[in-house]
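Honest question from a wet-lab person: if I give you the sequences of every part of a complex, can you actually get the arrangement of the whole thing, not just the pieces? Trying it with mine:
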Amino acid sequence: MKRGLPGDFAIWIFIFAELLVFGVFFLSYAFTRASHVELFNHYQQQLNRESGAINTIVLITSSFFVVRAVTAIKHGASALCARWLGLAVLSGGVFVWIKLLEFAAKHAEGISLSTNIFYMFYLSLTFFHFMHVLMGMVILTVVAVKAGRGDYSVENHTGVETGASYWHMVDLVWIVLFPLIYVMH
Amino acid sequence: MEKANRNAFLVWLVLVVLTLVTYMVGKLGYGGVTVVALLLLSISIKGQLVIDFFMGLAQVHSRWKWVVTGWLIAVVLLIGLAYWISSRGVP
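Yes, you can. This is the full assembly:
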């Protein structure tokens, strides 16, 4: 058993704060829905569940790549760690591309934050998460470059674990978001 | 390394299968209290797998790890409460 959380403790303070914000968002959605059940159920049917499901698998897969990167650096394989992180960033890019197509489709339909309360939640929640994916991709890219340069080792790989912890938080939040917004009624 | 990679792959596989089941539930239009309860159970399992095996908190001896698990439990229970209230038609 390790004594502390993986990575830099500062990232965990950030993660706890982010989880709190997303938690409040989720509960606001769920309790607001209780007063607008018909409206929420109707407009939920108009979402692209396929892209939501594909993006869930893409994020889960990217998290798996990050786990492989952490395992690699724990065994001193810096180049392998960098390659797994590169694959995770690429997966993040696929997520971003699919999400942009989804946003573009809604925009083309004339849907915006002010369309109705369901779309206000859908657009703000998914866009807020989208920004976290972009930030996670930046973090993982920096860590991948450093790993490729050999900056991490078996003894010193806090940076890899820090980036990994953030990315898994982004994945964890989407695991709640997808069923809640796209499926549950 | 082999064992860790195999375990990570198995977790990934379970996460993918549960995601596909969730997608099919939506595709087939299933809803209601029982379906919501099962979806929340699926969220709990997926979330705890990510926390324990991807974040690696199962291997950590720290009180802080319960913040993440506590968040998941609280969110799932309160979402369940909101859907239960809405199923009873209470505004």
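Two things worth pointing out. Chain B touches chain A through 52 residues (CB under 8 Å). Chain B has a mean pLDDT of 94.
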